[in-house]
Amino acid sequence: MKTKKTEDTARELYKQEMAALQADNEQAKREEVERNRPPVICLGREGKSHVFYSTASRDIYRLTAEKINWPNLLDMAAREHWERYLFPKETEAGAAPGKRELVAEAQERLIEDSRYKIFSPEAVRARGVWPDSAGGWLYNAGRACWHIPADGSRPERVENVREQHIYAIGEALPAPAENPLTDAEGKQLVELMTARPWTMVGAGDMLAGWTVAALLAGCTPMRPHVWINAPAGTGKTYLKNDLAAILGDYALCMEGIPTEAATRQRRKSDCLPVLLDEVEPGESKKNQKNIAALLELMRNAAYEGRICKGTLDGTGTFFLMKCNFALFSIADDISREADASRIVGLRLERRSPAVLSTLWERQKAGRNLVQGKDFHARLIARLLALLPVIIENQKALAVTLMNAGADARKAEIFSILMTGR
């Protein structure tokens, strides 16, 4: 006679067997996909070069016709992949061709594939959160990708080659945690930003919203920047350090005034934030020139993000720069209308030691949270879970602000900043 304990044990064993079977089936499917996957995907021509994406290494290759040679083919994929792709019947029959035949066939096939196709830099997406061509959104964490359905259901790990885009490899970012940050913990993060000696009501809320928008930069209609001014003794360094700690590996943090080229090259095409401290124009013409170039880069990054630079062969090359900037300095340089419509100026002011002490106490819970285990994995999990709501709220708030008489661009900026908090 079966007892309840025996039935429970049998049920648990059955669950384990089914889970193992499902895991085996998924592994078999992955192996089948890997076997049938082409070694490279042709992305088109860029000047005299042919642009390819290696499905094995997840790297982008730009090769002229003469550079489609044996060493580069092996760099893009293993020999057996080329054999199965270029000569499937012969390989299946055990009569795989030699190197010379493989190179000749690869040159002909790859050049023909890209002959009438122009490479678009937007076909390749780096790290960050992006709208997905199949609906919903996609989080490229560098070494793995997760699809976020439009209904806000749980993110699902997917392949990085999608219908219209390829998500390129990069340094690993946190995978979404099983236990996202709670509402109460989210409020602690907002308090960490608002409990500061701001000169303007709502400044801390906008900075908290900027933090969220900067992590979801690929999904917003534009990318607003913030420039934080703070005289000595107002806690600028603490604020910068806290913001950098919240963003973690997602942010590119630099001090001083880097060149436009250095900023662009270090951020690459990641749809992730940039933090610049000590951005002081001063009297130096070199600093002023670098800041002017940075502001131009920020103007581009706020909207289309397409940047074209000249090359030695005269064809030019394109870069994508879709990210939010946060600048810290004693004084800002938001003097042009084109900058004022993209950059929000925030300012800290001096307060009495008693007031600063009170603010410091209010910051402690948020600061402890940021230093906790798996914080960034839990943070991104919360943002991905709330992404559909954030997007819809931003659209609704922008319409409300415009109906109330706000300028369309300002309505767009403030709706993004305020729905992210």
Explain what this protein looks like in three dimensions.
- The chain is of the alpha/beta class and 421 residues long.
- The chain is built from 14 helices and 16 strands.
- The chain has helices spanning 4-36, 70-76, 79-86, 88-92, 99-114, 183-194, 203-215, 236-247, 260-267, 285-302, 337-340, 353-370, 375-403, 408-419; strands at residues 40-46, 49-54, 60-63, 124-125, 128-131, 137-140, 145-148, 156-158, 166-167, 225-229, 252-255, 274-277, 306-309, 317-320, 325-329, 343-347.
- The protein has a five-stranded parallel sheet, with helices on both faces. Strands 5-6-7-8 form a four-stranded antiparallel sheet, covered by helices on one side.
- Helix 6 (183-194) crosses helix 7, helix 7 crosses helix 14 and helix 13 runs antiparallel to helix 14 (408-419).
- It is globular, with a radius of gyration of 26 Å.
- The N and C termini lie far apart (60 Å).
- The mean pLDDT is 89.
Distance between the termini: 60 Å
Radius of gyration: 26 Å
Assess the beta-strand content as a share of residues.
15-25%
For the sheet with most strands, the description reads:
5 strands, parallel
Subunit organisation of the chains:
single chain
Total helix count? 14
Q: How would the global form be characterised?
A: globular
Q: Taking all residues together, what is the mean pLDDT?
A: 89
DSSP summary, beta strand count: 16
Uncertain runs with pLDDT below 50, 5 residues or more? none
Could you give the order of strands across the largest sheet?
11-12-15-10-16
Give the topology string: H per helix, E per strand.
HEEEHHHHEEEEEEHHEHEHEHEEEHEHHH
Assign the structural class, choosing from mainly alpha, mainly beta, alpha/beta, alpha+beta, or little secondary structure: alpha/beta
Helix content: 40-55%
